[in-house]
């Protein structure tokens, strides 16, 4: 028999609903009733955000500021995400990142070809333009704290699983809470109306909604503390190495951090060779990093494309969990933060500031806006990777092309401001001609003709 009751979490009164009948419900202590999409609520909409990286923190901040009762669950509050930590200027502006979060302002990017030809990129930057370099442990903690100060409840917990409470019901989210310390954690559950999966490349939320798999690259990185005189060289400079030795399909990097450099590389097509590519990246940068001490070794998957499904019911994926890293540059921080914010904005708008039940349709609004805004950026970078990272002659042509100030301006504008900048038709024609010349000189077209395909698809949208 079912009887009406009310309950509370963190002192918050919940709506009247049926008493828990199952053992699981009794353990949780309350139910979130079956409520139709769009129905008016007599409490705030409740959303759990799983994962407190840039995507989760930005989702939680926007939800909490928009009137939604928000629970952010992060397994490790001092998490040090393996990452180069490079962020574009638009991230600093749009997400109000304070100066102290940026370790280094890079204004010179050295592109280094397979034959060690060096081209300095950055000549076209104005005095106020730069690539921000940050440590993820610092950036993520700052964004999470900001979500908390805007009203999100932050739990230190490992999300385990969730279940749906009937066709129009909410979700019971189970996690191991580390709030009381200890390594094992204490099982805890909360009832929510919707869930945002921001739990990165190995997302458990994605598995829960059968979101499907994606191809991924494995990226390896060593953080190296180098002598002061060597660090001075990297003060405002980063390096990108290309060549079969450092990666068959990506690039090797040396990025400066606060008091050390991050040296790394990645690959999709030969993951078992990653250590050999890392050694080659170390060897190529050896003169400049000699005498350094390795202070951290880290590796992590990088998604190659969006998952086949990114929303189901009242559950949506954002950031790496959804698969939003660009090809060619391997950039994901901005897209993680942005997708989190866009998803939260759709929930806030759809629920009229947390006063109505949100629907799958609202989540599809987020997907459709994100795809419309960024599809071209992903597409262009995908093509660039296919054309220029496929053989050493093509990579030589790529580095040669970077000499052009026009190319530098276009590249930086696209990266820093996340717009595919329309060029000047005359300069575009000259660029096409020069590129073809570079490719022909390196005999690159013939070598890679069999492997290039321009047929990659637009990220799939979830059916309404
Ligand atoms: C080596 C490397 C270098 C990179 N360099 C750059 C770069 O220079 N610039 C750039 O823009 N991008 C870079 N990227 C990509 C970038 O790191 C990601 O795109 C970005 O971190 C995605 O953010 P996110 O919040 O979606 O996921 P993540 O940053 O992965 O955050 C996920 C969070 O969820 C938590 N979590 C996971 N599972 C659970 C669970 N079950 N319960 C609770 N919490 C959980 C994790 O602890 C983590 O804090 C790099 C990636 C790698 C691997």
Q: Please report the total strand number as a whole number.
A: 22
Strand portion, in percent?
15-25%
Mind telling me the CATH superfamily name of the largest domain?
Answer: FAD/NAD(P)-binding domain
Helix content: 25-40%
Domain FAD-binding: 45-336
Function: Catalyzes the reduction of geranylgeranyl diphosphate to phytyl diphosphate, providing phytol for both tocopherol and chlorophyll synthesis.
Family: Belongs to the geranylgeranyl reductase family. ChlP subfamily.
Protein name: Geranylgeranyl diphosphate reductase, chloroplastic
Structure, described:
The strands form five sheets. This protein has an eight-stranded mixed sheet. The relative contact order is 0.15. The chain folds into three domains: 33-79 and 138-211 and 308-374, FAD/NAD(P)-binding domain (3-Layer(bba) Sandwich); 86-135 and 214-303, 2-Layer Sandwich (D-Amino Acid Oxidase, Chain A, domain 2), CATH 3.30.9; 387-448, no CATH class. With 464 residues, it is α+β, with helices and mostly antiparallel strands. The chain has helices at 23-28, 54-65, 89-94, 136-149, 204-208, 228-233, 274-284, 286-289, 319-322, 333-350, 360-388, 392-401, 405-417, 425-441, 444-448, and strands at 4-5, 8-9, 12-13, 17-18, 46-50, 69-74, 86-87, 104-106, 108-112, 118-121, 131-133, 153-164, 171-177, 186-192, 194-197, 216-225, 237-241, 252-256, 261-267, 293-303, 311-312, 315-317. The radius of gyration is 24 Å and the shape is globular. Flavin-adenine dinucleotide binds next to α2, β6, β12, β16 and β20. This is Geranylgeranyl diphosphate reductase, chloroplastic. Catalyzes the reduction of geranylgeranyl diphosphate to phytyl diphosphate, providing phytol for both tocopherol and chlorophyll synthesis. Keywords: Chlorophyll biosynthesis, NADP, Oxidoreductase, Photosynthesis.
